[in-house]
Amino acid sequence: MVTNWLPTYRFNQAKHIAPLATFRVAFGVMMLASIIRFWSNGWIAKQYIEPEFYFPYYGFEWIQSWGNPGMYILFAIMGIAAIGIALGAFYRFSATLFFLSFTYVELIDKTNYLNHYYFVSIIAFLLILVPANKAYSIDAWRRKKQDFYVPAWSIHVIILQLSLVYFFAGLAKLQPDWLLEALPLKIWLPSRADTPIIGSLLDYKLTAFIFSWFGAFYDLTIPFFLLWKRTRVIAYLTVIAFHFMTAALFQIGMFPFIMVVSTLIFFSEDFHKKLWAKLIPQRKEVLPNSVGFANPVVLKYFFILYFSLQVLLPFRYILYPGNLFWTEQGYRFSWRVMLMEKVGYSQFSVNIPEKKKSFEVFPQQYLTPVQEKMMNTQPDMVLQFAHFLRDKYQTEFDAEVKVFVESYATINGKGSRPFINPEVNLASIKRGYQHKNWVLPYNQ
Amino acid sequence: MRYLKFSSFILFITFFTACDKKTGSEKVDFDREAFLVNIADNVIQPSIENFAFNAEGITVATNSFNANLSIESLNVLRSELKEAWLSYQHLAFVHVGPVSSVNLRDRVNIFPTDAALIEENIASQNYVLGSAANVAAKGFPALDYLLFGTGNTEEEVLSYYADPDLGENRLQYLTDLVTDIQTTSNLISEGWPDYRSTFVGNTGTDVGSGTSLLVNEYNFQFDIRIKNAKIGFPSGGNPRTGGVLSPENVEAYFSGWSGELAEEAVKSSIAVFKGEHFDASEDGLGLDDYLDALDARDRNDELLSRAIINQSTAALEEMEKIEAPYSEIASAEGSQLVNVYNALQAVIPLIKVDMTSALSVSITFQDNDGD
């Protein structure tokens, strides 16, 4: 029994909803801001309407762009759902709608995969499960009944998820490039030397070392410092400083701000109660249910399964031979954030033996700059693009088509080397989770 | 606890400063602004001036040719064309600011030229040179056709323009092409002073910064416009897959200047990379110095800047071995052009992968968390 493993943890203990409600509002508002920003930057069209070709995830090829105006409608739905989450209006429905629409968009093209989008997706998923609308919400107001108590797990799953993100991001930094050579920060920081105020410091190699070591220390320890009451305030100030620094230095959009507001959930019940009291003066509160909640046991097992998966997923790379950074087999969904500077180049050639034809294809003819950049360094995307070319020319010439690629890549500025085996006809390679033996070994 | 945290942070700093003094004081010692100023004032500006001077030269020569159809005026015009075409090769590498906004490369150097379309335009007298449909019917390659491809001898070319029916139209088309080049040159010259401060002022590596534009355009010119268009397409493309030989696709097909133009282009690439002053009087701050300041190295731990210069020079040496116009040798399978192609291809990963990585130039404003 689970309860025996964790004797002191009471899954269904009654807790005040305030921290969860704050989280709900903050997350909803941040999502709405993200959507507005995305829309106003013209990225809906750039990423989901203009491309001629997308890179769907394996098994999710049925997920496709809705085109114009479909994508705008989808984003509008997402925006309304985010408002629903923030206000706690038709909450379960809103959270489900947000999760589905956001995840759908992310699955259209893996070019746009970012750790923080994955983070948003899973938080949205967790929000569907937690009763974050029982108080301080439109739903409570509609029901004319505020219920201030939620089971402990509904707050703790979010805290646990946030902690896992930080901890794994920290764990991933414990490797020689990051710690002993301050890579890739040593490459990135000097290029940011035009940043106001701190810019001139970024040219010093020591700065890259300090940032690297501090970054690893921060990621590994911040959940614990936030959990412990005595260090919480200083830890939170560090959270603010850390994320604002990364926001100033790197193109990472809303992520720093999302983390800054999300980590508020580590604060105590009292802190959040006071916060809410300022916003919505309360007359009376329902007394805590000392017995706790009777949630279905199935939920408990579900979370055991869910978090086991969260813990195991980042380690799945162990199942593949070769250098993880090079092959990227098991790289995504593992909180490896800002960990490598990787650049590649690829030039495809199409060969149609029957017609005695062969010609070169430059990806930029069909891909956006971002798509090309991402594809150049990620073998599964190279294969997808090769298949796109195969299918396109097979139809055009009505003959068997071979596709080869001449490609090079470099990791952390350590010198470019051949990437994909140029002798392999990619048209005949199947997609899937099997080991990609057509990626040349890193140390060939 | 907060003291523990603070003191451990201090500990890191002392650790690094104390036991590794060399690392501690090591710094990327490079003046980005001085680099951009050098590229702007000693590379780009004189290239623009030189191009403008040569554009003027063709204009003047065309006017004299118009006024007096003679072998002499034809030869003057031809040599002016060559000078201008050579001077373009330098500017094509610094396709930033107004050079990029007038889209110089597409506007003056799309080859192979479309002789049939040119003749059609001449006959109909109904054409807009600025339209996208006419990119292959104008610029240097079109002049190449008009001054070399319209007859086997100078006399034949002259008689092409002396034709009682179409001679006038032909001269008019020639003049229109030259006017278009002159206009392009004027736009660049006029636009540069305004753009210069933007170029020099943005010392970052974001999209739109001088460095980012310079590096991206440099790569495009080298990979697509030189390696592929000048060498790869005519000689059969990537030799490994055995492409189709199409010697008629060389640059300057009719005049046979393909080799000289391609060599000039590679020479320009080296000069721009080194930040060499346009008149070659001095080697100023260039991409090579920037890479050295970053201590960028290739796979064999050689300085990346050295590797790029050596490999580009090796390509140039392969080119210099070729005496005949490329159109003649491109018709043979596995010709010397394949060696040139391979030598140029060896530069590509160094400039497109290693250099962009070391300089950390952005290609987009979109979010990217580095994975």
From TrEMBL, chain A:
<dbReference type="GO" id="GO:0008488">
    <property type="term" value="F:gamma-glutamyl carboxylase activity"/>
</dbReference>
<keyword id="KW-1015">Disulfide bond</keyword>
<dbReference type="GO" id="GO:0019842">
    <property type="term" value="F:vitamin binding"/>
</dbReference>
<feature type="transmembrane region" description="Helical">
    <location>
        <begin position="206"/>
        <end position="227"/>
    </location>
</feature>
<feature type="transmembrane region" description="Helical">
    <location>
        <begin position="117"/>
        <end position="136"/>
    </location>
</feature>
<keyword id="KW-1133">Transmembrane helix</keyword>
<dbReference type="InterPro" id="IPR053935">
    <property type="entry name" value="VKGC_lumenal_dom"/>
</dbReference>
<protein>
    <submittedName>
        <fullName>HTTM domain-containing protein</fullName>
    </submittedName>
</protein>
<dbReference type="InterPro" id="IPR007782">
    <property type="entry name" value="VKG_COase"/>
</dbReference>
<keyword id="KW-0472">Membrane</keyword>
<feature type="domain" description="HTTM-like">
    <location>
        <begin position="12"/>
        <end position="271"/>
    </location>
</feature>
<dbReference type="InterPro" id="IPR011020">
    <property type="entry name" value="HTTM-like"/>
</dbReference>
<feature type="transmembrane region" description="Helical">
    <location>
        <begin position="20"/>
        <end position="39"/>
    </location>
</feature>
<dbReference type="InterPro" id="IPR053934">
    <property type="entry name" value="HTTM_dom"/>
</dbReference>
<feature type="transmembrane region" description="Helical">
    <location>
        <begin position="72"/>
        <end position="105"/>
    </location>
</feature>
<keyword id="KW-0812">Transmembrane</keyword>
<feature type="transmembrane region" description="Helical">
    <location>
        <begin position="298"/>
        <end position="319"/>
    </location>
</feature>
<feature type="transmembrane region" description="Helical">
    <location>
        <begin position="148"/>
        <end position="169"/>
    </location>
</feature>
<dbReference type="GO" id="GO:0012505">
    <property type="term" value="C:endomembrane system"/>
</dbReference>
<feature type="transmembrane region" description="Helical">
    <location>
        <begin position="234"/>
        <end position="267"/>
    </location>
</feature>
<dbReference type="Pfam" id="PF05090">
    <property type="entry name" value="HTTM"/>
</dbReference>
<keyword id="KW-0456">Lyase</keyword>
From TrEMBL, chain B:
<dbReference type="Pfam" id="PF09375">
    <property type="entry name" value="Peptidase_M75"/>
</dbReference>
<dbReference type="InterPro" id="IPR034984">
    <property type="entry name" value="Imelysin-like_IPPA"/>
</dbReference>
<dbReference type="InterPro" id="IPR038352">
    <property type="entry name" value="Imelysin_sf"/>
</dbReference>
<dbReference type="GO" id="GO:0030313">
    <property type="term" value="C:cell envelope"/>
</dbReference>
<feature type="domain" description="Imelysin-like">
    <location>
        <begin position="58"/>
        <end position="346"/>
    </location>
</feature>
<protein>
    <submittedName>
        <fullName>Imelysin family protein</fullName>
    </submittedName>
</protein>
<dbReference type="InterPro" id="IPR018976">
    <property type="entry name" value="Imelysin-like"/>
</dbReference>
<keyword id="KW-0732">Signal</keyword>
